[in-house]
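Below is how a single chain appears once it has passed through the pipeline. First comes the sequence as given, then the structure the pipeline wrote out for it. We keep one example in the README because the format questions we get most often are answered faster by looking than by reading.
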Amino acid sequence: MKRLQKIVSGCVLGWVISTSAYAQQNGVTPDSVTIGAFGTITGPGSYIGLGGRDGASLAFKEINAAGGVNGRKLQMVFEDDANSPTRALAAVKKLVEEDKVFLLLSLGGSNATAATVDYVKESGVPMYVSIASAPRVTYPFVRTLFRGGTTETSRYGELYAEFLDTKYKGKRIAILSGREEYPRNEGDATAAKLKAWFNTEPVARLEFNVGDKDFTAQLSGAERANADVIAFFGNPAEAAIAIRQARDLGLKQPFFVGTTMVDPAFVAAARGAAEGVTGFSLIPLLPGSKQADMVKWEANWRREYPNAPPGRPNNFDVLGYADAYVVAEALRRAGPNPNADSMIHGLESLRDYLVGPVATPRSFATSNHIGNLQLVPMQVHNGAWEPIDWHSTHASDVLKRYQ
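Resulting structure:
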């Protein structure tokens, strides 16, 4: 009888300790983990946040159907940042202070995400960034901030500059970029590496606003500068208009576009004018690909979202989906009683973690939290993006900053 009383007392004590641990760790209960996500689902950048949100939601649903993570189901609370720095900061504060989430998951663009970084640092809540490439997410290094499917803007600049120099032999390059955080950063990083690696400076730097419909002035500026290549950094809708207007104006120069535009939606909007455009993709297979793995993934996605509008799923659905699985795997490695520290260790233990053929592998280290340095060069051929045979041979400088 005394032995039974000790066992019962031990179980009660263990339950009290375990329950107390859950109470002390925001977002964790005996049967659930709450993840706070935010992204743009209204306004010009909505294609980013809607894709990220729906892709992540599909992944979490699959994970929960398979039993969850260490016996817990994953719950996602999502806030719209409207691509506004002010809205993004308010959304993150709500998720942390009111919803008491365990982890933050950024599924929006750089313009909004960058505004949350200082607050997130102070909060101590880990944040995993799936899409935003803003440099300050991962540099200077902060232990609680991670970058997943996207990569640091400086890496974009390296690959873009090398491609423009070696593929096009471009010596007179015009850069057209939006004034927002993401496109401006890509333009700056590309110009910096063209100068540092190839002693080439853009013959023109021309800017525009998100939502612009007339790019005549910028295109005319590129023509006056006698550019032999035009690099365009912005949104797919803007790029589609610009490339059509360029052809209407008689410009023959090849167009190179940033990763956001390497998406079937750009080709659909630009129509025949998109033929021959090049860029880099963050995912090895684009929606619409006939490769078996993407066909299977897209079929699963469409079963979940049967009434989706044209242009979906997009690349950001795939990025959100893959990074939700990365977060889940790190949470599994964080153990039965996860906290911020064990979650960070779980992420830092990932080496070439691959969700499947639709994603690039993720690797993190204790010295840097850039999970992906791989991009896939692509070109529009016969109305669709296709991988092309080009490989970077220049050693990256990105990780040197963290040594």
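The first strand starts at residue 28 and ends at 29.

See the next section for the split statistics.
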